[in-house]
Amino acid sequence: MAERVEQRLEDRIPELEQLERVGLFTRKEIRAVLRKASALEYKIQRRALRKEDFINYIQRIGYSFKKDEIENSILHRVHCLFKRATGKWKEDIQLWLSHVAFCKQWNAKHELSKVFSSLLAIHPNKPALWIMAAKWEMETRLSSESARHLFLRALRFHPECPKLYQEYFRMELMNAEKQRKEKKVFEQAKMNLGEFSYPEEILNGEMARIIYRDAAQKIKGAEFHLAVLSIAKLFDFTQDLQKEILESLQTRYADDPLTWDYMARRELEMESKQSTEQTTKQMKITEMTQREERCCAVFEEAVGAVPTEDMWKCYITFCIERYNRKTNSQGLKQKRLERTLSVFSKAHESSLLSEALYKQWVQLLLESSQFEKATEVAAAASKRFSQSVETWQMRLQVMIQLKSDDVTQCFEEAIKHVKSQGALPLWTLWVEWSEGTNSKEDTEALYQRSLQATTPAESATMKELYLNWTYRNGGYKKVKKVFTSLCENRPFSLDFFKKMIQIEKEQESCKMLHLREYYERALREFGSTGSELWLDYIKEELSHPQGKPENCGSIHWRAMKMLQGDLVEDFVSKYTLLQAGHS
Question: How far apart are CA 446 and CA 454, in angstroms?
Fold first, then answer.
């Protein structure tokens, strides 16, 4: 190993001498570089290799010099290090991508081609890597043939990958556009094309058409057709291709909501028949209103032909998007609002409105000050989704916001319908509302009821809230009684005990006897889950006026017995710092 390291260091001597000659390094700095390089070389020559050592070495090498004789030597060394690292850790994609990025940074095209070749041989199961390599061949090396070859190889591994077909389709259209531009330049210059050949099939995007037709046989669903259609629309010579894709979409996926959604939204893109020179502000508003009405006419036809929840969602999403668009016309804004609320109502009457959309409907009604209607819709939503905690929560929040007299009755109704598991948000909302509305006695009774009604895990959260509320409203003596009472039934949360410790420390006559009791109770439950509680206990014994520093040894011994694995190391290191005075 030593011989190999020495040989590598000797190979660097001409390069370092050159650095000294050009004045970039002094003799002293070169010695320091050699010492550091020696240490790094030994690390990457060990039997038990570590990936971090290779990464560190690569990062340490300075390769930003402009002298060719230095630059080439350093670049070669970095490439060698990357090759050894990727050879050892073949599965580490990030390591490969670091080498790719390095090659791109230094425009090492030949080297990068080899890197991609090795990478794809090892990771042929990742379509994104094939796309990256093909894109580089097309955009950097300007080789459509190489890019096409890569896509065809990729499709042998992933014959039904939509993203591969989309990017292959895009590449062929880019190639056609590039050739069209080249031909145009030649024709404008009145040059003889000679050996240059520009077949009409290529120029018209026929290769892309073949790819689309092949993909359409293998990949089902409107989503893929819409994706390739959006790509085709980026190129101004693909009108026939767009027409074919659209016809196929309408024929094969006439019942897909995405097809109808696209057809409706197309109406917004239709060019105005009015003269653009004399268009006034009012004419623009009228034109936009007409376009949106045409869109809605298509959507109305769609929900009739495909009466599904997803279809109504597309329609409502469109209406909300239009309503949220900024406009200075109050008339247009109001028309959009009325249209949106009307569509919500129709979807509700058809029983095809999703739970999430009910929430959006209620929010829109509240924003437009239609409070009575909002209450009515929220009630309808809780009736339809009677077991949904989120829907009841929404209804209750609306009622609380509008100061309804029936809040308690609604809470009772919600608790009856919802399973106890997962009902915690309702109970927390109920006690929070009660704190600001009802008497202390009623609120305390509600807290105690919640402890019985919630699942054990959720009751731990209610105990924290109960403790907090009791301290705020009943003071120290009352909270101590409640704490003792709550400790009779598990489970607990760590914050429950921490809150009681904090309350005790806030008192003028803070007693260490009480703190010990709370710490001991907490450690019985959570002593094996972390080191912080043990350390806080030790600090308390050391800093409290009534503390007993001699107890620290016993606490330390108990902690070492109860903690396991990494928690022991964490505790020991922090305890050592505490002893050294770095608390």
Answer: 12
